[in-house]
UniProtKB/TrEMBL annotation:
This is NAD(P)H-binding protein. SUPFAM superfamilies: NAD(P)-binding Rossmann-fold domains. InterPro entries: NAD(P)-bd_dom, NAD(P)-bd_dom_sf. Residues 8-189 form the NAD(P)-binding domain.
Amino acid sequence: MAKIFVVGGSGRVASELIKNLINDGNQVSASSRHPEKIIKLDNVVPVKLDLHSDVSDWSEVFKGMDVIYFVAGSRGKDLLQTDAMGAVKTMQAAENVGVKRYIMLSSLYALQPEKWSQYESLAALTDYNIAKFFADNYLVNDTKLDYTVVQPASLTEETGTGRVSFNEIISNTNPIPDVAKVLAEVIKHNNTIGKVIMMCSGDNPIETALKDI
């Protein structure tokens, strides 16, 4: 059983992720500025905290954790303080208390700005992609964390298929349950450490795709 902290614990992806993590036998703490919105399951501890809080506040709640997930997002309302600097604060906090494993939910091609204008769905989210660029770039280049960055194509509310394509973008969407499943499975695969994984719906079973990454 791992002790896992989910930052942004009340969102759509977070709810599915937490269900997967609990089904795998983990203990989960999850943060939100509205902790009452966090999914209510055994072994899930809601934490009232937001990304405007200081690094020291995040360091305190990260003590004793094995894995940090960042799945927070402001939906365009607070990109600098939440999606960009908020993410950086959690990375700094993780390093401060010696939590090495850090999983970032990002966005397709977040580290490749030259791609953004080539896809209509990305061009409409330029400000969001800029925020994710800075967060991902800091994680990859300015920390010593054992990171994995998952960069999905557009999220949809469809039923999950359990099948994906990694780093070969053959579709422009992902069902949320598939993204959450990939996030949950990543921590079982040490070969994903230090990797940026672009994903979309595809033909490969998630377990096989992760083994082959």
